[in-house]
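Notes from the pairing session

We agreed to fold both candidates in a single pass and log them together. This is the raw record for the first candidate, unedited. Please don't reformat it; downstream parsing expects exactly this layout.

Candidate A
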Amino acid sequence: MRRSTKLAAVVLSGSLGIASLAACGAKSNDTTASSGSSEGGLKVGMAYDIGGRGDQSFNDSAARGLDKAKAELGVAVTEADAKTGEAEADKETRLKNLVTAGYNPIIAVGFVYQGAVEKVAKENPNTKFAIIDSASDTQPSNVTSLTFSEQEGSYLAGVAAALKSKTKHVGFIGGVQSELIKKFEAGYKAGVKSVDPSIAVETTYLTTPPDFSGFNSPDKGKEAAQGQLDKGADVIYTAAGSSGNGAIEAVANAGKLAIGVDSDQAAQPALAKYKNSILTSMVKNVDKAVFAYIDSAKKGSVFTGVKNFDLKADGVSLATTGGKIDDIQGKLNDAATAIKSGATTVPTAP
């Protein structure tokens, strides 16, 4: 996907901290006057997780919501990228620079921002913040958590994997061994076992905190997938941001099936040559959450507390691009209905 242009001096005046924003990797889609003023309108700042816009997965989903808000709500926006291996202070500085530049609300993409958001939000009580994929009992009232029931969508991915596996051997690759990614693992394994308890499930995590490079290392994803393929797995689900691109490549080269995550990866231009090997993707509709949050802010009734998007609310779903799950759609619908009705409770821990 096309990356937005770097934030230039014509967008933000020196008094709004141009130099510090540029140092933190800020970019802008701001189409307002040269002073950077939105003429009284809403100015939304987005701070991405590592991988940023163009990762074909998690960040891109958030970016789609931001783009829609810009197009349909007429808000001014700016974007700031994270760096692999950055310190906590870098995240804090990125958020502070957005505050100084007058962006309000500010959306932090990913649980890695939890500490930074809490600190900066407490220091700036008049600025609204949203954080995706994280909720804390200690965060101030000007922070909204946008969360998802990843385990429910992953359960359906597990059902699909089990129904399509010819070897009765499937795999799961997690980017970083965190409580969030364990929800993906737990749901996936439960879905697999609901179809056939005898199916083997390989599990590999690329990194453990505080190393978050597992979300932005396609080479590690490729290596992990190859390891699982060598053990006999023929369907592999990867929840690892852009690292999943490497896993998909390895699976496609082996003539097996991959399950994507967050975005409909079979529909991503950068992964077009592998689309025939992508069985489905567990789509986490971050774009819908981002747009809904910005819309609530524009209307003057911004979401507060924790706003969760589950299967019933279309917060998660399975992509159907390519038609590879058409023949099992009936069973997937039955599984989804059981979750929505409460007949099936999906675990959140492996």
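Candidate B (folded immediately after A)
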Amino acid sequence: MQNIGHYAQSIVEQFSSIFNIPISITDKDGLVIGSTDNNRIGSHHIVTTEVTRSGKMMFFTKEQTVNLVNVLPGIAAPLRFQQETVGVLGLIGDPAVVERYVQFVQSHIEMLLMENFRSKTVSSQMETMRDFFKRLSSYREKDDFSNIQSYCDLHGFTLGIPRRTILLDLQSSDEQATSYQQTETFNQVEQELYVYLKSLFIKNDQDIVVPLSTGQWLILSVDYDDRTTMLKKLEFTSNKLRNFLESRDRGNAFMFSYSDPSSSIERVLQAYEPCRKALEIAKRYHVQQSIVAIDDWDLLSYGLEELTLPAHCTLDNYIQKLLSHVNGPVLIDSFLVYCDEKMNMSQAARKLFIHRNTLIYRLQQLQELLSINLNSFKQCTLLYFALKQRQYCNQTT
């Protein structure tokens, strides 16, 4: 049942000032909840029952209302929501005069009812998704699997299928984020954006969009695509989002970060922090691209001075890829010597007792395997540090 009580009086004041005629609104039980005459608010209007029952507009002349209590000349029109009468609008005055305004005011109020319902529905969905993600984030493997399994089943969220973590940042200022943390409410702009993001990313009932804070949105998307295909889709989506924001004069500054898909809900959730950190570093160093990966070498090297960035988990993945290669140990050793010799190819080849071309071939293998730019000092330093750290850990355990 839709309730109009909390804004009935503001509607009355708005329209009575526009048309300069007295107006009243009653709820479905006949209680006057809005009136240009404050003395009538809270009183009972006997006409409501008949209008609600018939669902039709009723006209009252001055002569007809002489013996009726709390009924004034004018027109009483039903206010409908989802095919149900939820109240009655009263336009007071000569019916022949006020009739021209009835349909306009009636339609406007009914549109407000629908908009209010839609807003509450969207806001409720957003709150549900945010609470759902908070609960998921508390998941610890094996500790409470049965509980989290039941919780996910309740929300129709199937575990064990590959999902990619995508984080969208639209935040314009620290002040804006602070404001959200204080109120934790969803305004109309955020609701509109939520609906649009759902249209962009929800492809099946297993995809979800989660509002995290003002300007920050998390997408958990079922994804079987390879990275190249996924990036093409995300670039297309980025262009649509940019057009949407521009059409509403909201600017177009935003950035996506993403992880590789995983069937483990634990890894999907763990990917949030690397995605957040990647966006933080990208914004700090004014990275111009609108899509960044958590395992991007350029991005990782920006955060070299704080090696807890998204680096440890990502670099471990790169090292495992090297170790899994049939020529992995040789490639690692050649790369470390290359760095130790100040990236001087000839000196490194002499140190390894191999031909210079052999070293070039090995480094090309490593470069292709990891998609690293070996001409970048920062990227080489990052991998060098990770490999050395791993060697140290192996020696001390």
